């Protein structure tokens, strides 16, 4: 006799309530992040779910894993893994005919940043304080940027901010950079959290910053832009 999964009253396929329940539970576990890969595989081999349901779960899991790779777990900003893809895509949109219709962007400002004397901060106050500094820095970067801007953590204490800008006036671009530079380094500090959860001393730190601008029509590659911004950040660090 055929099961209710295979046929209904008129030969119509109808869902098996038990399999639907297992599918929903597994789907919720993936969405919440509390999934078990062995359980997912076992559900198919034990026929607890259908092949179609397994395919949907696998697609959802891949999407979840892609996002996990794309986002830096500590700071919540984009990770280095997604940097060149997103920046190249933005550059293509900047210079393409279709992109010009969609985006009123004339320039892309790339800002390279790192925490000054980060190794000393780690050695003096411990790695927990170093992690706090990274989180505080990332939150400050979020506070000085707007929707549509992108922030990346590209190394241990190195970050990158990408700003699509609707103007290419050099004076305006310089004033935007100076404003961001000042806002980032104003009263940048945090209360150190001890291993027992208590707060102790206040630690003040600052950020080295360098920037470069890519204008519409420029043939400069993304790698060249990143290198130039990195070099200017290094000069800023050495000047202090």
Characterise the protein shown here.
With 240 residues, this protein is an alpha+beta fold. It folds into two domains: 17-69, no CATH class; 78-239, Reverse transcriptase/Diguanylate cyclase domain (Alpha-Beta Plaits), CATH 3.30.70. It is 51% helix and 18% strand. The protein is built from nine helices and seven strands; from the N terminus they run αααβααβααββαβββα. The strands form two sheets. A five-stranded mixed sheet has the order 1-3-4-2-7, with helices on both faces. Strand 3 and strand 4 (158-165) form a beta hairpin. Helix 1 runs parallel beside helix 3 and helix 6 (118-125) crosses helix 7 (127-144). It is flat. The protein starts with 16 loop residues before the first helix and ends with a helix. The model is unreliable at 1-14 (pLDDT under 50). InterPro entries: Diguanylate_Cyclase (IPR050469), GGDEF_dom (IPR000160), Nucleotide_cyclase (IPR029787), Rev_trsase/Diguanyl_cyclase (IPR043128).
